Sequence to fold (288 residues):
Amino acid sequence: MAIRRREVLAGLFATGGLATWGLTTKAAHAYDVTINPTAPQLGDTISVIVRTSGSTPSPTVTANGKAYPSFPLSNNRFRAFVPTSPLDPPGRVVIQVSGAEETRNLAVGLRNRNFRTQRITLRGSGSLGTDHEFDRVDAFKQLVSPDRHWAGELLRPSQGRVSSEYGVRRYYNGEFAENYYHRGVDYAAGTGAPVVTPAAGYIRLVGRVADGFELHGNTVGIDHGQGLLSIMIHLSRIDVNEGDFVRAGQRVGAIGATGAATGPHLHWGLYLNQVAVDPVPWRYGGFE
Fold:
């Protein structure tokens, strides 16, 4: 059975540790590179901080050949984020830092992680979403703006109980969905319970059922800057408009069951450089 509709409904409904070889001192290298966490697992965000010897352009950071944007920090430092997901193969990841001063190759061990599985039986012909909503959501996920609006740990967007965690894998009608994983965290609460933004940012997506958001339901997308995005779906009400700037903890809507939802809940997806990452490290620890 072919199970595809933009990665099975867009994912709505974690061997080794950090290799310390290659991380030598500034005396030996023009680029001093720090990689965190020290033992990343599938779904983690990997932070790559590069300290340069002076006023130089931002270095290029790649992981297994894919480039990721780097942004300036203080004291001649730049940072790039490498997102990982349950779809990545565990094992060695080669991170290359290159620029005007030198090129460095470092190795990171990405640990495996056991994600819970669900078995779903599909019956009938429920809505698989519209091209309009997928086009708008996909365009939102591509955003990478230069200014950072988040700082430290992200806030919990709902006080409801966690009803489904990040990374859950699924079988549909007995067949494993290779490209599916739950791309966020679900919070169950009563209809009308407040939904707040986990960090400051600009509202870049507002979608409503009336506009064709049949799958996601009423939707809000927030650009926190530098490739970090939040998407909130299934809302009963939306309290913001596209272009608004929102503060961390500001109410943006209310929990509902719009779209493809079996009951009232908030689905919060946290995207980084187009990949849905585990929000837990961002909630408990955060990044500089």
